[in-house]
């Protein structure tokens, strides 16, 4: 079967339109990520019932370089969550918040100071992690 010149032009036009759509969609998604700030994260954490949302927002800011890191930009990973295979991917920053909520519900025991809990659970390998969180909160 032979493809004539007119069919080739239509095929290339269609492929071009798909490529433009993919670029625009990607740009829009990246732009949406770039606009994220602590207030948005705080509101979402409160909405879904995360305990100590001000501390958790500080964690997100620290883990993402104030929402600018590649791990956040490429993976929507607000909290540096990892598996043995590397950093986790999330569909959106809201899904990362839901994952944090699940982690917190599973691990946190009421009555314990949250900073002490984060240290005891080994949330971060950085020995200055708690100090840095407190500086962000101030």
What distance separates the N and C termini?
71 Å
Give helix and strand order, one letter per element, not per position: HHHHEEHHH
Structural class: mainly alpha
Task: Give the tally of structural domains.
Answer: 2
Number of strands: 2
List low-confidence stretches: 21-32
In CATH, the topology of the largest domain is named Lysozyme
So what's the oligomer here? single chain
Would you identify the CATH architecture of the largest domain?
Orthogonal Bundle
Taking the sheet with the most strands, its summary is: 2 strands, antiparallel
Write structural notes for this entry.
This protein has 138 residues and is mainly alpha-helical. 66% of the residues lie in helices and 3% in strands. It has seven helices and two strands, in the order ααααββααα. The chain has helices at residues 5-34, 38-48, 53-64, 70-75, 93-107, 114-121, 129-137, and strands at residues 82-83, 86-87. A two-stranded antiparallel ribbon has the order 1-2. Helix 2 (38-48) crosses helix 3.
């Amino acid at each position: 079967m032979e493809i004539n010149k007119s069919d080739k032009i239509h095929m290339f036009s269609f492929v071009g339109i798909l490529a433009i759509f993919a670029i625009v969609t990607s740009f829009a998604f990246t732009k949406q990520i770039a606009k994220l700030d602590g207030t948005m994260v705080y509101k979402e954490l409160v909405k879904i019932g995360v305990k100590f949302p001000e501390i958790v927002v500080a964690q997100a800011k620290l883990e993402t370089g104030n929402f600018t890191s590649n791990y956040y930009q490429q993976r929507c990973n607000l909290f540096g969550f990892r598996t043995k295979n590397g950093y986790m991917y999330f569909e959106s920053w809201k899904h990362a918040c839901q994952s944090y909520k699940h982690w917190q519900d599973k691990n946190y025991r009421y009555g314990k100071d949250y900073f002490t809990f984060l240290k005891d659970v080994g949330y971060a390998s950085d020995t200055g992690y708690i100090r840095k969180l407190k500086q962000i909160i101030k």
